[in-house]
Amino acid sequence: RGLGDVYKRQIYMKLKYLIVLLCVMTAFVTMSCSDDEDEFTWHEYKLPVSASELNCPIDEPVLVNDQAELTRIVGESANPTKVDFNKHTLLIVKSTIYYGIKKLNYGLSYSNGKYILNILVRRDITAVVTDIAEAYVIPKTYDESSIELVINVD
Predict the structure, then answer these.
(1) pLDDT higher for 90 or 108?
(2) Residue 73 scores a pLDDT above 70
């Protein structure tokens, strides 16, 4: 046999290795996907009014589980976007910041059976009192103790 045969055999071996690797990767990706309905999924909800117009307590997470309660919080004339309250809860947090805001970062996570809403406030040198609010659609819950609010000022 000549060098050409050895070279062809090396190409076939590399091709076999590549095919096996692709099959393993495909299997891994397919098995790691889940159709479990209990997965933690959420999305941001755009409030139809400014934070100062919300009728809810300050620095306390509010769980909204029906359209009437949402209308009470945002007001009759606000015409809030509908939420499927059979499957979801609307989490609203309102806070008052006593300095100028350069940037706000929000993040929602789920760990050990708790929703953790992190708000990072990067302040500037001005002294302005500002109300802020954030809302998220989360899986259905009535347990207010399952919500933790963390506000960090930088």
Answers:
(1) 90
(2) yes
